[in-house]
């Protein structure tokens, strides 16, 4: 795998880390937030420092041949520990249990890192190897043991994390379950990464050349695991937000025709307070709903129940279902009142009852759809002298009707 295959996953992970930084600043005391950020940041560091150009630079700066290999092993061990801690904090449980398990994993991988440093210091690796350090020094005293230790530590974390995610996924539902299944795939790929490297190292110790497993296939599996890890960790957090945001935006768009109709009643009047374009979708929706209520208050003196009843009766006569006909009647009444207000007409309409004026969000959406989709509404209000019998045409097959 060329350098591009290392730097792209590193950049992707660090971009995700940058996105999570505001959450870290707001809740840096939350161990779950810290764990997520550490996993993402350290995962990116693992890819960055494993790239051959970075390996060469670290070796040159340190003046120690293959010092970068030790650094990569330490980063990978830290990544393994961070993933285990993340799963422990994410799943939760009693505070004492979470602390005890977290301390055990943290202590264990701290010891692994310390032993890696000691073994590297005791060993001798004078020839710089940028891509095949694992197999080249597989049989070297102390260095070979260091390689085996880091691979076993990584495999342990991958296996334990996969099992924990698998068991947890069987107990939950929704976005969390989907994220856990994706994490299982990612950690199985990580397990395959260390498994292939371990097989290549063992083969080298036995006098066979399986280096391609370590130098070619295992980096590819690691690069494939990165997006699964990103999606698996972020999906349970982003998924519900994305669905809620999508629904909010859909509602905002659906209310557009009604808002525009009421805004046209008095162009000089601002319906609800203006907001900045970068405000959240929920803020935009709240302001649009407030604007609609302001508009209804503005045209209320011109609301005529005769218009509503006439449009509803005409719609029912045209074969429209009763709920749809009710929405058509309300839409016709609001459009007639909006036009009368805009034109400055003053008359004494028959005031509708409270139940005839839509207030709930679902009813407002239905009225908005009626304003946009049904031509019957467009004919209402053009003749103030006889507004009660608008023309109605049947809804053809395949044509939208309000729901």
The total count of strands amounts to 0
Second CATH tier, the architecture of the largest domain? Up-down Bundle
**How much of the residues is beta strand, in percent?**
under 5%
Please work out how many helical segments DSSP would assign. 15
- Mean of the pLDDT scores? 85
* Radius of gyration, whole Å: 33 Å
Task: Give the domain tally.
Answer: 2
Provide keyphrases for this structure.
single chain, 403 residues, mainly alpha, Rhopdopsin 7-helix transmembrane proteins, 2 domains, 15 helices, 0% strand, elongated, disordered C terminus
Please provide a written account of the structure.
By secondary structure, this protein is mainly alpha-helical. It has two domains: 4-235, Rhopdopsin 7-helix transmembrane proteins (Up-down Bundle); 256-378, no CATH class. The chain is 73% helix and 0% strand. The chain has 15 helices and no strands. It has helices at residues 4-26, 31-50, 52-62, 67-91, 95-122, 133-136, 143-169, 174-205, 211-254, 256-263, 281-299, 305-317, 322-343, 361-373, 375-378. The two termini are 55 Å apart. The relative contact order is 0.07.
In a nutshell, what does this entry contain?
This protein has 403 residues and is mainly α. It has 15 helices and no strands.
Topology, please?
Blueprint: H1 4-26, H2 31-50, H3 52-62, H4 67-91, H5 95-122, H6 133-136, H7 143-169, H8 174-205, H9 211-254, H10 256-263, H11 281-299, H12 305-317, H13 322-343, H14 361-373, H15 375-378
Helix pairs in contact: 1-2, 1-9, 2-4, 2-9, 4-5, 4-7, 5-7, 7-8, 8-9, 9-11, 10-11, 10-14, 12-13, 13-14
């Amino acid at each position: 795998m060329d350098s591009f295959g290392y730097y792209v996953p590193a950049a992707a992970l660090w971009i995700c880390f940058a996105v999570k930084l505001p959450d870290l600043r707001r809740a840096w005391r939350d161990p779950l937030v810290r764990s997520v950020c550490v996993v993402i940041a350290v995962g990116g560091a693992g890819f960055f420092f494993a790239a051959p150009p970075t390996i060469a630079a670290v070796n040159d700066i340190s003046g120690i041949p293959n010092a970068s290999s030790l650094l990569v092993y330490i980063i990978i061990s830290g990544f393994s520990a961070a993933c285990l801690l993340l799963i422990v904090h994410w799943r939760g449980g009693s505070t004492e249990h979470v602390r005890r398990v977290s301390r055990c994993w943290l202590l264990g991988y701290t010891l692994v890192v310390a032993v890696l440093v000691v073994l590297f210091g005791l060993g001798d690796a004078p020839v710089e190897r940028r891509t095949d350090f694992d197999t080249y020094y597989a049989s070297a005293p102390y260095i070979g043991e260091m390689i085996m230790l880091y691979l076993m530590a990584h495999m342990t974390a991958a296996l334990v994390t996969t099992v924990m995610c698998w068991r947890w996924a069987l107990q939950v539902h929704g976005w969390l379950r989907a994220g856990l299944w994706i994490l299982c795939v990612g950690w199985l790929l990580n397990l395959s990464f260390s498994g292939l490297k371990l097989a290549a190292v063992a083969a080298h110790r036995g006098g066979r050349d399986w280096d391609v497993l370590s130098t070619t296939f295992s980096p590819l599996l690691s690069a494939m695991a990165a997006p699964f890890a990103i999606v698996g960790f972020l999906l349970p957090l982003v998924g519900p937000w994305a669905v809620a945001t999508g629904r909010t935006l859909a509602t905002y768009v659906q209310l557009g025709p009604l808002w525009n109709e009421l805004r046209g009643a008095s162009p000089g009047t601002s319906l609800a307070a203006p907001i900045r374009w970068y405000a959240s979708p929920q803020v935009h929706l709240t302001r649009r709903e407030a604007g609609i209520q302001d508009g209804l208050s503005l045209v209320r003196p011109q609301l005529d129940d005769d218009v509503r009843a006439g449009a509803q009766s005409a719609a029912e006569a045209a074969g429209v279902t009763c709920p749809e006909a009710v929405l058509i009647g309300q839409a016709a009444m609001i459009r007639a009142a909006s036009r009368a207000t805009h034109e400055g007409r003053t008359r004494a309409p028959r005031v509708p009852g409270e139940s005839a004026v839509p207030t709930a969000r679902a009813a407002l959406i239905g009225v908005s759809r009626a304003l946009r989709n049904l031509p019957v509404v467009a004919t209402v209000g053009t003749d103030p002298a006889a507004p009660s019998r608008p023309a109605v045409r049947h809804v053809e097959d395949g044509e939208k009707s309000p729901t």
